Amino acid sequence: MDPVQYSSESSSSLNIGLIVIASILAIGWLALMASGVKLYRGANDSTIKAISTTFLVAGGTIALTVILGVIEAIPNSLSGPILLAEIAILSTIFWAIVLVDAATNESKRGNDKIVWVLIILLANLLGAFLYFGIRRKSRIAELSR
């Protein structure tokens, strides 16, 4: 096989891969920003507003990184680490917001507060998603009765 021909074949498959990755990231940041706006508009709770603001910031920073990577304003070797750093920072912000919510708003009767704070601390992001998805909704439903 001619080396020049092999080079162009691998280059075109690399370009297709980059287009697919950029498309997935674009859909992701659009979804993050849309869900952030929807959550913020319907929220009466400061925790939900803080999380929706995090979604908006996440979508914006990921979009900015992808756009800067596409126009080659930042080197391709830095795009991946920058995206990972953004995701790590925003995940930590979400985790901290949920931890503060559990520590301040969970009822003091029984061991619910201690158990949920420990779950969030020990299971990190998974614990935060579990609390936010399961317990927080049931706590709000209990309080509205």
SSE blueprint and pairings:
Blueprint (H helix, E strand, L loop, with lengths): L2 H39 L4 H25 L5 H30 L6 H33 L1
Helix pairs in contact: 1-2, 2-3, 3-4
Summary tags:
145 residues, 4 helices, 0% strand, elongated
Describe this structure in words.
The chain is mainly alpha-helical and 145 residues long. The protein has one domain. Helix content is 88%, strand content 0%. It contains four helices and no strands. It has helices at residues 3-41, 46-70, 76-105, 112-144. The termini are far apart. The mean pLDDT is 77.
- Name the overall outline: elongated
Q: Cα distance, first to last residue?
A: 74 Å
The helix-and-strand class reads mainly alpha
Q: Give, in order, the helices and strands.
A: HHHH
Radius of gyration: 21 Å
Q: Approximately how much helix is present in the residues?
A: over 70%
Count of alpha and pi helical runs: 4
Uncertain stretches of 5 or more adjacent residues: none
* Structural domain tally: 1
| Total beta-strand segments | 0
The description of the largest β-sheet is: none
Indicate the mean pLDDT: 77
Please report which band the strand proportion falls in: under 5%, 5-15%, 15-25%, 25-35%, 35-45% or over 45%.
under 5%
